[in-house]
């Protein structure tokens, strides 16, 4: 009797799994069709501004940076911390929330407001580079900004060249 019950349960689970598989396939097809309809047709090449405005009209926050790369130039390694503010603008229709900022090195510190940036508003991500924590020479550091923007992740970079004081003599 127990064997019969377990066999029935196994059959039910198997049948349910197959039904879910068929439903998932239909969902994938409808999602693929929706993406195909929203993507540009052959010969169309929407500009970056049109794509940005299109996603903003659909709703959601849209993070835009005035600049995504900053060059500190040639700096003394023991000359102190270097600071740059990246201005962030919300071009979307809902408030923008910067959720997390990852730096590629312990020589970088990032600070940002945890408060939402209203549509059309601006905020600042302050990056502090501590050159004495790295070897002298060219540096190229990446900072990843995560937010509720339609793009999800934005990358900003700082670069330059640091030298020891002995090199200048």
Task: Describe this structure in a few short sentences.
The chain is 31% helix and 36% strand. With 169 residues, it is an alpha+beta fold.
> How many helix segments?
3
The proportion of residues in beta strands is 35-45%
| Radius of gyration computed on alpha carbons | 25 Å
Helix residue percentage:
25-40%
Biggest sheet, strands in spatial order?
A: 1-3-6-5
H/E topology pattern: HHEEEEEEEEH
What is the strand and helix layout of this fold?
Elements: H1 2-38, H2 48-58, E1 63-65, E2 69-76, E3 82-90, E4 98-103, E5 108-112, E6 122-129, E7 137-147, E8 153-163, H3 165-168
Parallel strand pairs: 2-8
Antiparallel strand pairs: 1-3, 3-6, 4-7, 5-6, 7-8
Structural features, described:
By secondary structure, the chain is an alpha+beta fold. The chain is built from three helices and eight strands. Strands 1-3-6-5 form a four-stranded antiparallel sheet, with no helix packed on it. A hairpin with a 5-residue loop joins β7 (137-147) and β8. The radius of gyration is 25 Å and the shape is flat. The model is unreliable at 18-32 and 34-57 (pLDDT under 50).
């Amino acid at each position: 009797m127990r064997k019969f019950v377990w066999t029935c349960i196994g059959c039910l689970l198997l049948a349910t799994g197959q039904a879910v598989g068929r439903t998932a396939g239909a969902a994938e097809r409808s999602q693929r069709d929706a993406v195909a309809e929203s993507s540009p047709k052959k010969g169309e090449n929407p500009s970056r501004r049109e794509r940005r405005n299109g996603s903003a009209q659909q709703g959601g926050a849209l993070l835009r940076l005035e600049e995504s790369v900053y060059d500190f130039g040639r700096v003394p390694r023991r000359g102190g911390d270097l600071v740059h503010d990246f201005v962030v603008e919300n071009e979307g229709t809902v408030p923008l929330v910067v959720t997390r900022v990852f730096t590629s090195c312990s020589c970088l510190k990032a600070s940002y407001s945890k408060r939402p940036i209203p549509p059309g508003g601006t905020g600042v991500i302050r990056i502090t580079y501590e050159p004495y924590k790295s070897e002298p020479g060219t540096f190229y550091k990446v900072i990843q900004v995560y937010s509720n923007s339609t793009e999800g992740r934005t990358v900003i970079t700082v670069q330059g060249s640091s030298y020891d004081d002995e090199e200048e003599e």
